């Protein structure tokens, strides 16, 4: 019995020595000896984007050093940075729509930065429609669209008309700016309504809309606007590397003026050398298969050219050189 115990003791000692000698080799084989390498159990690392000390919106400096503003901005910048497919799609679409919208904003005296409000409203989706009924790039509600000069009915809905809806948005912005005197408040009012922003400024005795306690959607809205500008102005800084051919080019179109009804837009599209889907894609404000137009109103239809419909990566030009790596 003693011999057996002595044997077990020796065997245990040998095993302990072997294990002790093996462990360092196992650890050493899995260690990464490259300097400054982050230790992670997954084959990639995620780091938060740096929140700037301040950002500029239409020349107004927005101080982000205060904890609440910094954390709200941090949340929105992380959302844009790590919603990879969504943000990359925004950059691609911006190459097509910013050249259309920017001149209209400028002609109406609206800050260029308001194109980013369009970004957060619709994700640059021309046929975007919210559950509440807001529609188009600028997400007008039916009554508001009509108030600012848009035709909105079952047959024609100009909330989906890029140029006309942008002009209507400019009218709203100018009206709101006359009331508030700063563009950040104008953006908040576009989301929450002028009545709510005005009443909350008075009730909370606040000097600036960004200091209001609001429902989460509106509270986030202003910082989503600032974050959209920050990330889309320099997507490479936030890890989005695109080439010119990755961007969506503007589609060359010819304009045809129409003053009479069109009984079949399907047949009309064929006569123009395109199909109904392409006609609707270029003219999303058309809502049915007919254009009634009993009043003889003048409409302008955009018809894509055959050359313009064919994608040629060699001809794709980046509207903003900061969007691409080449």
From TrEMBL:
Q: Transmembrane: present as a keyword of the record?
A: yes
All copies of domain Transglycosylase SLT, residue ranges: 111-204
Q: Which InterPro entries match?
A: Lysozyme-like_dom_sf, Transglycosylase_SLT_dom_1
Q: Name one Pfam family in it.
A: SLT
* Superkingdom in the source lineage: Bacteria
Assigned keywords, A-Z:
Membrane, Transmembrane, Transmembrane helix
Transmembrane segments annotated in the record for this chain: 7-27
Q: Which family does it belong to?
A: Belongs to the transglycosylase Slt family.
Protein name from the UniProt record: Transglycosylase SLT domain-containing protein
């Amino acid at each position: 019995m003693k011999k057996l115990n002595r044997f077990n003791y020796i065997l245990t000692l040998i095993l302990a020595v072997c294990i002790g000698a093996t462990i360092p080799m196992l650890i050493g084989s899995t260690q990464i000896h490259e300097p400054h390498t982050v230790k992670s159990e997954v084959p990639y690392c995620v780091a938060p984007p740096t929140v700037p000390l301040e950002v500029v919106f239409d020349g107004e400096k927005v101080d982000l050093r205060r904890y609440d503003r910094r954390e709200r901005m941090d949340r929105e910048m992380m959302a844009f940075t790590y919603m990879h497919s969504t943000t990359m799609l925004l950059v691609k679409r911006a190459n097509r729509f910013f050249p259309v919208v920017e001149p209209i904003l400028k002609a109406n005296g609206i800050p260029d930065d308001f194109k980013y409000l369009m970004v957060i409203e619709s994700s640059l989706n021309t046929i975007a429609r919210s559950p509440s009924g807001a529609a188009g790039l600028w997400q007008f509600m039916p009554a508001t669209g009509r108030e600012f000069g848009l035709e909105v009915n079952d047959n024609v809905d100009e909330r989906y008309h890029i140029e006309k809806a942008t002009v209507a948005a400019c009218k709203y912005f100018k009206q709101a700016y006359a009331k508030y005197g700063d563009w950040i408040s104008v953006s908040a009012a576009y989301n929450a309504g002028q009545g709510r922003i005005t009443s909350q400024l008075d009730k909370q005795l606040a000097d600036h809309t960004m200091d209001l306690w609001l429902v989460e959607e509106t509270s986030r809205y202003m910082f989503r606007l600032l974050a959209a500008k920050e990330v889309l102005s320099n997507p490479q800084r936030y890890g989005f590397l695109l080439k010119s051919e990755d961007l969506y080019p503007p589609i060359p179109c010819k304009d045809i003026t129409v003053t009479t009804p069109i009984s079949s837009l399907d047949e009309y599209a064929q006569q123009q050398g395109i199909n109904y889907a392409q006609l609707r894609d270029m003219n999303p404000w058309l809502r049915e298969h007919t254009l009634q137009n009993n009043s003889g109103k003048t409409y302008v239809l955009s018809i894509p050219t055959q050359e313009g419909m064919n994608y040629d990566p060699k001809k794709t030009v980046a509207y903003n050189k900061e969007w691409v790596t080449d």
